[in-house]
Write a structure and sequence with these properties.
The protein is mainly α and 136 residues long. It is built from 5 helices and 2 strands, in the order αββαααα. Strands 1-2 form a two-stranded antiparallel ribbon.
């Protein structure tokens, strides 16, 4: 595996939470992590199983943009905790955290088109960050 300083995909993190084959748990050492600001609708990720479920998009449905945002945001925060430089996504993380203070996956259908586009832009930015080997 890539040492500290690289970004790793959400697939890597979910298969390295201690529940897949012989892959060690590399997630727990970086918990707890907040998805949100720590108040309101924020999610406090405190255990590897909870993290795996979020990374596997089991909160809601994988077609739900907020569910996708949770997964990519958690992946980005794990990458940063693992030593990757988060400067390029710091503004996106802050905006997503602010949004998740007031919204959870059950709000997806009630969001305006503009709000949905914004959530999907954040998710896409974080997905690009998590998948970019250039961040090593």
């Amino acid at each position: 595996p890539c040492g500290g300083g690289c970004t790793l995909t959400i697939g890597y993190w979910k298969t390295h939470a201690g529940f897949h084959g012989n892959n060690p748990d590399r997630v727990t050492q970086y918990l707890p992590i907040w998805l949100g600001t720590g108040s309101g609708e924020s999610i406090h990720v405190t255990g590897a199983e909870q993290a795996m479920n979020i990374l596997s998009m089991k909160l809601g449905h994988s077609s739900n943009g907020i569910t996708k945002l949770y997964a990519q945001l958690l992946g980005a925060k794990l990458n940063i905790a693992n030593g990757a430089d988060g400067a390029a996504v710091a503004v996106t993380i802050a905006a997503a955290d602010d949004f998740l203070e007031d919204h959870d996956w059950t709000d997806w259908d009630s969001l305006s088109r503009a709000e949905k586009r914004r959530v999907l832009r954040w998710m896409s930015t974080l997905d690009d960050y998590n998948n970019a080997s250039a961040w090593c």
